């Protein structure tokens, strides 16, 4: 009877912990106690949620397991908590401890590798002070052969090409005689020590240099090619503009005469009074030179605001009698004004003074001016 009471007490204590910090194969996670497959707590059901907020809500609410949830083995139970907030705090602590343990393992591995590299023994013998040995291979033996076969042959490719060889000076070369005569340098050294030093010193070698940063060079060349292409495109655009300017530069008198003729023609055609005159103007506006000259002439009118500019330009373009027969969209059986080439002239003239003026901004004042033509 007492044993059964103890078992009941233990179960009640375990049931007080509603949340567990468990370790799966892919990491740590907080789960409620009703997600365990059985009382052994070696497996647990896990939902297929992809949103962390939805997952946290399901854990906090201790959502019942579903049929489509999969079972996953539990590596270890790190901690348990009575509330969701305490469980989240313990989960962070467990993750931090896990990160620190992995960092310490990597640090110990690096220290072992460094100790293996430093196992170099320096002899106390004075016979060969320049020679030293490693636990794996003698470094002095590596520098002895001078034949070309001792170096590996590298393939000739753009990624790894052999550059010109550079000379490494021999630091053990004897000093010139002038130094010896003046008593400089080796006068205080013994002859035996000099011979031993020169004989054991490494010989003069030629080491190949290789370009290991070919990818960086290729990226630089690619960017350089793009810059060159941009410069070429700009030059082509400048040449096209110069070609258009060339006739006016070579024949300034002809261009001035043409401008004078256009101005006289514009004064004769505007303001437009009849539909026949409107047809003539529309035909002439199909030529870019005439259109540009019209914009240039009407731009001289100006005004303080967008509405003022439009109200000053329109009387110079057409009479009130002709304006009565037009509306912007052709309402009430009137002619459509928005389809005329003249509309483009008005818009470009306004933008000469106000570069940010949109077509919609120009549309409103023109509509109003056309609707008030009969009253004027």
UniProtKB/TrEMBL annotation:
InterPro entries noted in UniProt: DUF4806 (IPR032071)
Occurrences of domain DUF4806 (ranges): 269-339
Top-level taxon in the UniProt lineage: Eukaryota
Bias-annotated ranges (Basic residues): 109-120
Pfam families per the UniProt record, alphabetical: DUF4806
Region annotation (Disordered) ranges: 93-158, 172-207
Biased composition (Polar residues): 131-141
Name the record gives this protein: DUF4806 domain-containing protein
Organism: Graphocephala atropunctata
Lineage: Eukaryota, Metazoa, Ecdysozoa, Arthropoda, Hexapoda
């Amino acid at each position: 009877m007492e044993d059964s009471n103890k078992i009941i007490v233990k179960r009640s204590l375990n049931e007080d912990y509603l949340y567990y910090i468990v370790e799966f194969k892919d990491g740590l996670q907080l789960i409620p106690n009703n997600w365990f497959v059985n009382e052994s707590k070696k497996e647990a059901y896990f939902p297929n949620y992809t949103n962390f907020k939805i997952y946290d809500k399901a854990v906090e609410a201790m959502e019942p397991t579903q049929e489509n949830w999969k079972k996953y083995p539990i590596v270890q139970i790190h901690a348990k908590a009575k509330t969701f907030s305490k469980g989240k705090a313990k989960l962070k602590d467990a993750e931090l401890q896990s990160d620190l343990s992995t960092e310490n393992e990597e640090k110990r591995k690096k220290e072992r590798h460094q100790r293996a590299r430093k196992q170099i023994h320096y002899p106390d013998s004075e016979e060969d002070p320049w020679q030293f040995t490693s636990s794996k291979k003698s470094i002095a033996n590596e520098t002895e052969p001078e034949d070309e076969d001792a170096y590996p042959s590298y393939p000739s490719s753009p990624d790894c090409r052999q550059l010109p060889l550079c000379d490494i000076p021999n630091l053990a070369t004897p000093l010139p005689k002038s130094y010896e005569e003046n008593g400089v340098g080796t006068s205080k050294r013994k002859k035996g020590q000099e011979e031993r030093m020169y004989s054991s010193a490494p010989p003069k070698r030629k080491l190949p240099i290789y370009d290991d940063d070919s990818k960086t060079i290729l990226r630089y060349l690619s960017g350089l090619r793009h810059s060159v292409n941009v410069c070429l495109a700009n030059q082509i655009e400048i040449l096209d503009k110069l070609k258009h300017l060339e006739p006016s530069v070579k024949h300034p008198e002809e261009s001035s005469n043409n401008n004078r003729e256009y101005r006289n023609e514009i004064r004769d055609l505007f303001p437009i009074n009849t539909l026949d005159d409107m047809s003539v103007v529309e035909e002439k506006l199909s030529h870019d030179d005439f259109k540009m000259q019209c914009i240039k002439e009407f731009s001289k009118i100006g005004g303080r605001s967008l509405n003022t500019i439009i109200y000053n330009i329109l009387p110079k373009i057409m009479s009130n009698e002709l304006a009565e027969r037009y509306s912007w969209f052709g309402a009430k059986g009137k002619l459509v004004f928005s389809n005329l080439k003249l509309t483009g002239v008005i818009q470009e003239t306004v933008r000469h003074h106000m570069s940010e003026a949109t077509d919609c901004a120009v549309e409103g004042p023109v509509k109003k001016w056309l609707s008030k033509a009969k009253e004027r």
